[in-house]
Write a structure and sequence with these properties.
With about 525 residues, the protein is of the alpha/beta class. It has three domains: about 120 residues, Rossmann fold (3-Layer(aba) Sandwich); about 130 residues, no CATH class; about 200 residues, no CATH class. It is about 50% helix and about 10% strand. It is built from 17 helices and ten strands. The strands form four sheets. Strands 2-1-3-4 form a four-stranded parallel sheet, covered by helices on one side. Helix 4 packs antiparallel against helix 7 and helix 11 crosses helix 14. It is globular. About 25% of the residues are buried.
Length: about 525
């Protein structure tokens, strides 16, 4: 494969005639990205507010007199974020104990032991949480601080620590600890530690957008997989990668990587020769290599990794769709959870309907025919987020379509001001809870498509219609609208063949940060 497109960063020019004040000001001139103008004024305001926060933060760092290079070196060390995570976790847990004890003291005045009586069990609880978090990998060194996988690990770890501490209180006969305080401490602790990790994620975004703790990244190989990696790097600034360019495999590859001062190399496995890869990784030991597996051929089947006489194997297991789980267990879960959500979110329904009616003409709900389980048609409900004449003006906007095979526009001019807010928060999808209750949809599953798009699903692709469409799914949490139709279908089929309560739970948990961060929502 020849040399692909290469992007080089042009170094900043420096002059020799700089005063001390000029040099000092340049020391704190951070690469804060200027927001590009969009067609939506709400989005522009958010970008400008973010830029102002970054500017104020950088100015406050400048006023402290800290050296930019010194701060860059400190934050670039792996131990820095590890120590910070440990400190935040233990701080949040101890604050949770104080909150739980204070609340119990107010409710049960005079019947609760003072906080000093809990010192020994609190020290043991801190040690237990620290050890469990270490062994479950919550302090592993990686470019992100907290994601949905970490949240699942956090839930398991906090629950395990709770069981251990509860058992310890039973074995401690000398002091009668309040089980209510202990239970509330761990319940509030789960929420507070999650909040602390989320705040650290935001700090990472700010710090890395200021130019600290960043790594230069190169992508070996071209094609759609390479473009997907590049898109993910740009979508997640908190990972702190500066994209240097695409390059192809050739004889002087090692010199090229060192010339670009690459620190992390993403490799497309479908473009790699095994001998070249081994030689490259051996001679460039100072670089991190991340190999993207070619799962397009295998993702539709369950995989397992094993050894056969010291030979590593990937096993493709024969396992099909499980109708009993879908018909009974999954259906019961859908009805119970959706009914509870409709009741709990009823104020959101009322406020959204009032806002739509007050700001634009037309009905509150948008109704559209979609294709469901077994290719049966049903009526899908959403809050209306576009002008009343949106469907009539659709033919004139086909040139703006940004997704192959589907009609998707990132900054659709038909979206109203209220509609933009509803879409960013995914509130426009809430009426589909009714579709779930009546049995047209499920909480988790493939996305429902309109009949006009059925020509895209021929042959093996029609297997995605074996199950009910979902409010969220593997497609949505893996990139939502940014991936093409074929990869979305592969993800749908992967979900169908792996469908289980744990997978559904993981997808639902991953949906939460996708909504909060509005990843790919358009």
């Amino acid at each position: 494969m020849g040399l692909g497109k290469r992007i080089r960063f042009k170094p900043h020019s420096r002059t020799s005639r700089m005063t001390k004040s000029t040099k000092r000001s340049m020391m704190f001139t951070f690469p804060i990205r200027r927001p590009s103008p969009s067609t939506n004024p709400c989005l522009d305001r958010i970008h400008h507010l973010r830029a102002r926060i970054l500017k104020l933060f950088s100015q406050s760092i400048k006023n402290t007199g800290l050296k930019h290079e010194r701060m860059r070196r400190i934050m670039g060390h792996k131990w820095f974020w590890g120590v910070l995570k440990v400190s935040v976790d233990l701080l949040m847990f101890n604050l949770s104990f104080k909150a739980a004890h204070t609340l119990s003291s107010i409710i049960y005045r005079g019947q609760v032991l003072p906080q000093d009586s809990y010192n020994s069990i609190l020290v043991f609880a801190n040690f237990t949480i620290l050890m469990i978090f270490i062994f479950t990998g919550l302090y592993q060194s990686k470019r992100s601080v907290f994601d949905s996988e970490d949240f699942l690990k956090l839930m398991e770890s906090v629950f395990l620590a709770y069981l251990i501490i509860t058992a310890a209180t039973f074995l401690t006969k000398s002091v009668e600890y309040s089980r209510l305080i202990i239970t509330n401490t761990f319940a509030v602790g789960l929420l507070s530690i999650s909040l602390g990790r989320a705040l650290l994620n935001y700090v990472l975004v700010v710090v890395r957008e200021m130019g600290w703790d960043r790594q230069r990244a190169v992508i070996l190989g071209n094609g759609s997989d390479g473009e997907s990696i590049l898109r993910r790097l740009r979508e997640r600034p908190e990972l702190g990668y500066d994209f240097v360019g695409f390059i192809g495999f050739k004889s002087d590859l090692k010199d090229d990587l060192r010339g670009l001062r690459a620190q992390t190399v993403f490799i497309m496995s479908s473009d790699v020769d095994q001998e070249e890869l081994i030689e490259l990784m051996t001679e460039c030991e100072e670089m991190d290599f991340k190999i993207v597996p070619d799962l397009v051929k295998l993702i539709s089947e369950p995989l397992s990794f094993e050894e056969f006489r010291d030979i590593p194997l990937i096993t493709v297991k024969g396992r099909g769709y499980r109708p009993l789980y879908s018909k009974y267990v999954k259906r019961a879960f859908d009805v119970v959870v959706s009914s509870m959500m409709i009741i709990l979110l009823s104020p959101v329904f009322v406020l959204s309907a009032a806002a739509i009616k007050a700001t634009s003409r037309g009905p509150v709900y948008f109704r559209q025919v979609r294709v469901g389980e077994g290719e049966r048609l049903f009526t899908l409900y959403k809050f209306r987020t576009m002008r009343e004449d949106a469907e009539d003006s659709k033919p004139g906007l086909k040139d703006l379509n940004e997704v192959s095979g589907l009609f998707k526009i990132k900054e659709d001019p038909r979206v109203t001001g209220v509609g933009y807010i509803l879409r960013r928060a995914c509130i426009d999808e809430l009426p589909q809870l009714y579709n779930i209750v009546v049995g047209d949809m499920s909480l988790v599953g493939p996305r429902p498509h309109i009949p006009e798009e059925m020509d895209l699903f021929k042959g093996w692709r029609r297997n995605r219609f074996k199950v009910k469409p979902g409010l969220t799914g593997l497609w949505q949490v893996s990139g939502r609208h940014e991936i093409d139709v074929d990869k979305a279908v592969l993800l749908d089929i992967y979900y169908i063949k792996h469908m289980s309560p744990m997978l559904d739970l993981k997808i639902l948990v991953k949906t939460i940060p996708s909504i909060m961060l509005s990843k790919g929502r358009w």
